[in-house]
Design brief:
421 residues, mainly alpha, Growth Hormone, Chain: A, 17 helices, globular
Amino acid sequence: MQTRDSEDITREGFRGAVSLLRRNGDFRNLYFAQLISFGGDWFLLVALYGLVLDLTNSPLMASLILVAQLVPYFLFVPVAGVLADRLNRQVLMVSADVVRAVLCLGFFLVGPGTVWLIYVLQALLALFTAAFEPTAEAAVPNLVDPEDLSLANSLVGSAWGTMLAIGAGLGGVIAGTLGKNAAFIGDSISFVASAALLVTIRRPFSEARPTEHEPFLKATTETARYAREDRRVFALLAVKGGFGLAGGVLVLLPVFARDVFHQGDIGTGILYGMRGIGALIGPFIGRRVAGPHASGMFRTIGLALFCFPVFYAIFPFMPFILLAGLCTIGAHIGGGAQWTLSTYGLQRFVPDRIRGRVFSFDFAFVTLSIAVSNLAAGWAAGHFGPEATMIGLSVVGFVYAVSWWIGTRRMRATAPAAATS
């Protein structure tokens, strides 16, 4: 295990990130596997939004793309959490990548009479994504040294934003110029590349486990019991799910790009790309503002929760797509900060033996709230217009941010002891 002096340990930003990636080849491969996979996902999503809007001209049908992805994810992710705590996490993630690579090729069969196939394939992809994502989050503390965990989480959190910025922007251009089939191929290739990187990792993805396991139901309910007993964990599990209540604004971005700014797939790529810029830099800003103490982490999460609704409340009043995109950056600086810090907090406070289940619950909660919000946003946009719908969702997000801030006031005032193991 490598060690560093205090100056190296406290180093922030780009230099610290480069240092971690250079020193730790196993984490580097996980990080780049996620980068590649996320990029392919955004290639796919931008193309699917454009395809459904072209074939149906319906914001509601477009919102169902995410609903078809999120509902199966929500239903399966508790099972996936138990699997992540029982099976070989590395094998589970590689297998999920291989299956998703094959499923992506099914989008070639979509046409005017087979729009339904989009939703079937999205649902199947979601099942294997549910096995991949919580497992990856649970594995990170085992792939880095303890002093690197905070920085590693900033990097993993920014990976999503990085490839949203690059993948969505490039995906919009490619879908608008080379056609949507190119995006389907790109996503399939990304999963193959991700699997190839994961198989090279040598460090174990989990600690040693008992040979006998609890019954499935008991293993699942242990998560709820643990969260109830540790208020820090309960508060952190509430972060993403509450944030997701306003998440329906995200399905409105392609509607704004197409119907308000009249920019089509390229406009969707611009807005999602600028969303990615915010999500890229948000984790690093959040980490710097939060500092080393748990009280600072809870304070920063609370402030970050306010950024999302405030900037999206301003978005509908912007006359040009680039100005709207700046609002998107601001919203997702907050979104990226709260997402990464709440993940880091769970990794600090939750032992490895149930970490997969805790993260599956975390992902299930946010998935359910985003699915409901997206469905409501798609319906409301068709009846009241995208502008009024975005403002309404912003109000929901603001009310939740106030509630979370009030509910965690004691955690912001103290610095509880860190983590179990």
